[in-house]
Structure formats: structure tokens, C-alpha cells
Amino acid sequence: MPRVSLTVNGQTVAGEVEGRTLLVQFLREHLQLTGTHVGCDTSQCGCCTVHLNGIGVKSCTVLALACEGAQVTTIEGIAEADKLHPMQEAFREHHGLQCGYCTPGMIMSALDMVRRKGFDLDEKTIRHQLEGNICRCTGYHNIVLAVQAGVKAMKARG
Amino acid sequence: MYDFNYHQPKSVAEAGKLLAADNQKPLAGGMSLLPTLKLRLNRVDGVVDLAALADLQGIRREGDTLIIGATTPHAMVATSADVQQAIPALAKLAESIGDPLVRNRGTIGGSIAHADPGADYPSAVLGLGATVVTNQRQIAGDAFFTGLFETALQPGEIITAVRFPIPEKSGHAKLRQPASRFAIAGVFVSKRAHEVRVAVTGVGPHVFRLTQAEAALAKSFAPAALDGITLDAAGLNSDIHASNVYRANAAVEMTRRAVAAAS
Question: Measured between beta carbons, which residues in chain A are less than 8 angstroms from residue B1?
Fold first, then answer.
């Protein structure tokens, strides 16, 4: 079987995979990094969002072998030791979740939004830019509040 | 998804050789190909990943032509200062595809090679009179889309870039399916000294030009010039989202809006 080697959350990892193995399968089933979820499996819902070489992607629609040599960051890789990332803290503080299934994808997608659009995000921009992430509990109101607070905290942190 | 071999060639020439074998598919961003494989609408023996080939990616302007590399992601087209300045409607079209995460990964070459009847880029290729450049030849945009999910590409042929002539004015309008963001009716219009082009996607089996509208707009490039223009609904796409009659009307209305938005 072909072998893939990449960096996930700063650690070099490698494994044998099939041609068809998806990045999300590699993360969850080979590395046991189960924070990245599979929702729709058809690149609609955004539960599986991770950062590939710094850019937000839906890991259910990326082949593991295409990530040879890449840098991947998952929800498990954004906190610093016991201190939550400001965006995670904002989701906790503002209860930006109901069942929590979409939350890892929402947070990784929100961070990609900051990369693309900067720190000055109004509510309309946040709602529009989150269109690749679906919350089946429809908890969008607090998710938007959380992203607003998270980006503000990130800006203050510098 | 059935298993397949994964190939990562180091050059376009090597990719061409790999694709010459039986039942191989080029893979760019994978936003269309991987879902079709997962849903078993398609089955391949191998994929040839073009994403690492640096000479297929990037945007440059050469005189009156904008050249976009085949594996340039939608997000890059949408935010490129060159595209925004030369053909603003093309940047706007790119920004309307899928969602931000899909735009980070999906590519222009992949979109036109896949030739989904509801895809957006085909309307820009036809609506601007673009040329599709492959590893073997140059194909006029008018001759590129040949049927439902069918193009003029031959086995082993790889799109390397799309050349867009820069028009005086261009506009894009789209009635989008609210969940998938695909076009129920999408229209790209362009105006240059000797011609007006109107290309419609989402409405027929593949993108097509609305010739009556082009003739009317050549006389007067204004929304009112389209009054009285209708599109025969026979043979047009019909599904749970919109009937063929609805799409025929939407195509004309989107043309009106694209002209009104043209800059």
C-alpha cells in the first residue's frame, strides 16, 4: 500500500493508506484525531474543516495521498497546552453550540475567515462567510456572536 | 468509493503519459471528481493529481488577454487585483461558486473539464469568447462544451490554462440553487467593439449562447433592449428546483440583470 507522510498539528506522522483514503479518514482512523467530524460526506456541511498548508478545506473531499509533505492543522492543534484558542474560548463563553457536532468545523472555518478577511468582521460578513458550514440544530445566532467575540479577542491578542 | 491508484506526476508531460493508460482521470481540486467517485457515479482505475504542478497555477495579464492557469483556485481568481481590474464580472462569478472552503480548493480547469450543466465558469468561457489551452492544442471556447458533462477534450489531454480576452464591459448574474449554489440560471455577458456575447449556464444540457439577446444588445447595450425576447423552453433542464419554462424565463431575466450590472 502507498505510504503518506505529513505534519499534523506540528508532529510528523506517516501511515499506509489506499489511493481512495480521504484526509478525514486518515486523521480520524489512523491518527485517532476524532475532533474532526464527518457530517454529510458530500462537501456541503463543513464539519470536517481543517487547515491544509494554512488554508481551510473540507477534509472529506481531499485525498490523504495528496497531502504528502503538507502541514495540516486540526481542531486538536489550535489550543496552547491547557489554554483554549481565543476562538474556542469565545464559542464556550457565548455557547456557540447546541449538540456540538458542527463546532470543530465552525471554529476551523471561522479561523480561515479571519485569514481571508482580517480582524474587522461585521455580522453580515460572518453570516455570509459561514455558508460552507451547516448547524443542524440551527444554532447560528450564538455561533455568529461567538465568531464576533473570537475575532475581537484574536485582534486584542495581536 | 472504489479504490484506485494515485499518481502525482512531476510535469505536465509525465501527467499526459500517465493519463494515456486506460480509465485514468486528471485530479485538480477534486471538488467535483471526488464526490462523483464517492457516489459511484464514476469509477476510475487511477487519478493523476495535477495540483502540485506549479506551471498550471497562477494569473497573469498579457496585453488585452487575461491568462488563468488551470489549477488556479476560485478564491485566487475572486481576490486577484488583475482579474478585478481587467474583468470584474469574472472575479464576481468566482466569488459566487460554492462556499469559501470549496473556493479555496476548486479550480477553473477542473470546473470546465467537468462541464457540469449548472457550473459557473463555462458561462465565462463562452461569454467572453475565451480560448482553452491544453497540453496539445488551443480550443476555441465556442467549440469546447459539446454535451452534458462532455467537452472537446480527448483522452490524455490536459487543460493548462484559459485565455480570456479583456472586454470593454462584462456582467454576471445568477439565480442560484440556495443549497448547492449551482446556477438554476446563470448568465455572463460581455461587450466589445465588434460583438456582444451572452452565455447561459444551468438552463440547458450545457452552456449556450443566447443569440437573439446578443443581436438585440449589439444595437443597444441596455436591459430594455431585451424586452420581448423569449427563450423556447423545449429541451431545457427541468428538475425539482425549477421547470424548463421557469428556467427559460430566468435566463432572460438574468441576462437583463447581467447587462444592468455590467462594468
Answer: 20
Place of cell 450545457: B206
- Spell out the domains of chain A, with CATH numbers in brackets: 3-77 (3.10.20.30), 86-157 (1.10.150.120)
* Nearest chain A Cα distance for residue B93, angstroms: 16
Does the interface predicted TM-score (ipTM) exceed 0.90? yes
Q: Do A58 and B34 touch (CB under 8 A)?
A: no
- B1 part of contact set with chain A, CB < 8 Å: yes
Q: Could you tell me which chain A residue has the CA closest to the CA of B44?
A: A20
* B114's grid cell: 467537468
**pLDDT tens figures, B68-105:** 999 999 999 999 999 999 999 999 999 999 999 999 99
**How many whole angstroms from its chain centre is CA A13?**
19
What's the gap in Å between the CA of A78 and the closest CA on chain B? Answer: 19
For residue A61, give the nearest of B6, B35, B181 by CB distance: B35
CA-based nearest residue in chain B for residue A46 = B101
Q: Does domain B58-261 have CATH number 3.30.465.10?
A: yes
Q: What is the pLDDT of residues B155-204, one digit of tens each?
A: 999 999 999 999 999 999 999 998 888 999 999 999 999 999 999 999 99
Q: What does the DSSP 8-state code read for residue B223?
A: G
Classify residue A12 by its DSSP letter.
E
Three-state secondary structure call for residue B183: strand
Task: Detail the DSSP E strand segments found in chain B.
Answer: 5-7, 24-27, 46-49, 59-62, 65-69, 131-134, 138-140, 145-147, 150-151, 159-165, 169-176, 183-192, 195-201, 208-209
Whether residue B74 contacts residue B181, with contact meaning beta carbons closer than 8 Å, is answered with no
Residues B27, A63: C-beta atoms closer than 8 Å: yes
Residues of A in contact with B94 (CB under 8 A): none
| In chain B, domain spans | 58-261
Instruction: Count CB neighbours of B252 within 10 A.
Output: 22
Show the cell assigned to A48. Answer: 470536517
Measure CB to CB from residue A62 to each of B1, B6, B30 and give the nearest one: B30
B183 dihedral zone (left: phi>0; alpha: psi -120 to 50; beta): beta
> Given CB atoms, is A99 within the 8 Å cutoff of chain B?
no
